[in-house]
Amino acid sequence: MTLEAQARAALRRGDLPAAAAAAKALALASPDEPAGFFLLGMAAAEAGQIAKAVPLIEAAVERGPEAEHLAQLARLLILLRRDGEAANAAQAAMTLAPGDALTLDTIGCVLARLGDHEGSLTPFAAAVKAQPGNLDYRYNLAAASGFTGRVDDARAHYETILAKDPGDARAHYALAILSRQTAQANHVARLQSALAKASKPDDALRIRYALAKELEDIGNSGDAFQHLSAANAAHKRAIQYDFGQDAAIFDAVEALFIDGAHSLAAGQGNADLAPIFVVGMPRTGTTLVDRILSSHRDVGSAGELQAMPLAVKRLTGTSSRVVIDPETVLASGGINPTEIGDAYMERAGHHRPRGVARFTDKLPANFLYIGHIARALPNARIVCLRRNPMDTVWSNYKNLFASQSAYYAYSYDLMDTARYYMRFDRLMAMWERLYPDRVLQLSYEALVADQEGQTRRLLDHCRLEWDEACLSFHENRAAVATPSAAQVRRPINADAVGKWRSYADALEPARAWLEAQGIKII
């Protein structure tokens, strides 16, 4: 067996010391060949040493680019948040016409992480063609198909997966949210069977969410809430979330911009007027507004960027492993706003669509960064979606966000979600006082009731000329990778307005608490 074969075999069985030893021997024996350096890098990556792995794989690429090496380099660069370099490596890998399924799937995953879901379809489809029995590859193709509006293709792929693995919880959940179910056509019985057999907590979580969604679709609100309540309670216990974690972040933001306002670093900021930030609580119409704006001839959607949180985190240099925490918030006040603006524009530049002057950044949690946005990007426009408090609470509680994301950990408990809404509402009032007229607080209900009037108001705030295409946002063919994908491909409607009332009894504790805090419930 050759040294390369030894290293690859050791990697497959997880014997990292043996893989590294064989790869090192190969690099020493053939220093001008890429294989040894690539395999050394892969051994380091498997050991979690990403920063060590990247230069080794870069050394392999320098000795003669190969699609496999470039694809893996792109994957690791994504993990290091070096998105521009990752995009270049993925594109270079694709131009080399890779034939093996893993490399193709890896390229697709990188493109998907970069928000290029349309571009990811080609490598994902090629991976499935090369290995049609690999369910992970097929799931990735199904997800990309759904994100890009190819609903029938996505449905067929998910059904293929479930035919081979009836317990695949990811496919069950994805299929449930792909479209609205009806009393005549749904998967409730199949989901109940899958739930009874689910042995892993994460599988039960996804299947219960799928059941809740389909039961709500067909009008069975009682059983839907029972499944949600069980799923959320179990997941909150698993992640050991305490609302104090988020309360401390809100406290730090308020302390920095009120008590510490006098010590905020001075600076003119970056004058670029390209960004339009769409913020707010999740599930309040942020995707809808993003689609309306990106239907404009001068605007493209960059998706939900981490560019602002990462710019602030990197510039503060705080040691915590999370993007936002009280220490990072308080340290951020000492950064020159121009540095933040420049760092944001550099990061966002890797994602912004070409050929248009303006772009949207639809990360809902950017409402925490409005103070920095206002100071670092003085010409950027900010739109915050506001929705009926109880519809907001209910919609957050019932949707499965990225289950490991700290941004949405509050949503697995009804009262935590109400508390989070209250702090969000209080923070938005603070931004309004500190930066009047910088943020358009746009009512979801008003937009539904008066689409053209509110769209004109939106475009005026964003300094955009009128474009009739904004009223036909549902014809926008750009990809959507949020739970709202199905809704925003339909014309505007009032189906979701007042939806919480179907669950009024179960939601009464949250309603009463919010009302006691002085928050008006319509």
List the helices and strands and how they pair.
Layout: H1 3-13, H2 16-29, H3 35-46, H4 50-62, H5 67-79, H6 83-95, H7 101-113, H8 117-130, H9 135-147, H10 151-164, H11 169-178, H12 188-197, H13 201-217, H14 221-239, H15 244-259, E1 275-280, H16 286-294, E2 299-301, H17 307-316, H18 326-332, H19 337-349, E3 358-361, H20 370-376, E4 381-386, H21 389-398, H22 414-434, E5 439-443, H23 444-449, H24 451-461, H25 504-516
Parallel strand pairs: 1-3, 1-4, 2-3, 4-5
Helix pairs in contact: 1-2, 1-3, 2-3, 3-4, 4-5, 5-6, 5-7, 6-7, 7-8, 8-9, 9-10, 10-11, 11-13, 12-13, 13-14, 15-18, 15-22, 17-18, 17-19, 19-20, 21-22, 21-25, 22-25
Description:
This is Sulfotransferase. Pfam families: Sulfotransfer_3 (PF13469), TPR_16 (PF13432), TPR_19 (PF14559). InterPro entries: P-loop_NTPase (IPR027417), TPR-like_helical_dom_sf (IPR011990), TPR_rpt (IPR019734), TPST-like (IPR026634). It comes from Sphingobium phenoxybenzoativorans. The protein is mainly α. The chain has a domain at 244-516: Rossmann fold. The chain contains 25 helices and five strands. The protein has helices spanning 3-13, 16-29, 35-46, 50-62, 67-79, 83-95, 101-113, 117-130, 135-147, 151-164, 169-178, 188-197, 201-217, 221-239, 244-259, 286-294, 307-316, 326-332, 337-349, 370-376, 389-398, 414-434, 444-449, 451-461, 504-516, and strands at residues 275-280, 299-301, 358-361, 381-386, 439-443. It has a five-stranded parallel β-sheet, with helices on both faces. The protein is globular and about 75 Å long. 48% of the residues are buried.
